[in-house]
């Protein structure tokens, strides 16, 4: 029966350096620091080394996906339904 506990080979980092965070987010150095300045990512200094929490990277992605899903749903609601029956000028349904 498989064990639920993670072994040493399966450790997932809790924090990463900015360069690694930018690779994970597929963004530039400038965009990454803009995200930090805007409070989109959580970070702290460990001595002189900046560390970014992996949880905040996951949260950013989740927020972006939710916003995209909401925008897509809003666009779908604002579009007229393409499947409606065409109407004749006098108000009768077309055959």
Summarize the helices and strands and which ones pair or pack.
Blueprint: E1 15-16, H1 18-25, H2 29-37, E2 43-46, E3 49-53, H3 54-78
Antiparallel strand pairs: 1-3, 2-3
Helix pairs in contact: 1-2
Which strand-content bin applies to the residues?
A: 5-15%
How many beta strands in the DSSP annotation? 3
The succession of helices and strands, N to C, reads EHHEEH
Number of separate helices: 3
Low-confidence sequence ranges:
none
Q: What is the CATH-assigned architecture of the domain at 13-76? A: Orthogonal Bundle
CATH fold name of the domain at 13-76, please? Arc Repressor Mutant, subunit A
CATH class designation of the domain at 13-76: Mainly Alpha
Strand order of the largest sheet: 1-3-2
How would you sum up this structure, described in words?
- The chain is α+β, with helices and mostly antiparallel strands and 95 residues long.
- It has a domain at 13-76: Arc Repressor Mutant, subunit A, CATH 1.10.10.
- 44% of the residues lie in helices and 12% in strands.
- It has helices at residues 18-25, 29-37, 54-78; strands at 15-16, 43-46, 49-53.
- Strands 1-3-2 form a three-stranded antiparallel β-sheet.
- Helix 1 packs across helix 2.
- The longest helix is centred in the C-terminal third of the chain and has 25 residues, at 54-78.
- The radius of gyration is 24 Å and the shape is elongated.
- The mean pLDDT is 85.
């Amino acid at each position: 029966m498989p064990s639920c506990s993670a072994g040493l080979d399966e450790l997932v980092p809790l924090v990463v350096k900015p360069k690694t965070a930018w690779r994970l987010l597929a963004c530039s150095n400038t965009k990454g620091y803009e995200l930090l300045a805007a409070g989109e990512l959580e970070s702290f200094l460990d001595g002189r080394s900046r560390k970014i929490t992996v949880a905040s990277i996951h949260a950013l992605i989740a927020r972006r996906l939710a916003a995209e899903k909401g925008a897509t749903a809003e666009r779908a609601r604002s579009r007229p339904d393409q499947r409606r029956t065409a109407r004749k000028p006098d108000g009768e349904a077309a055959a």
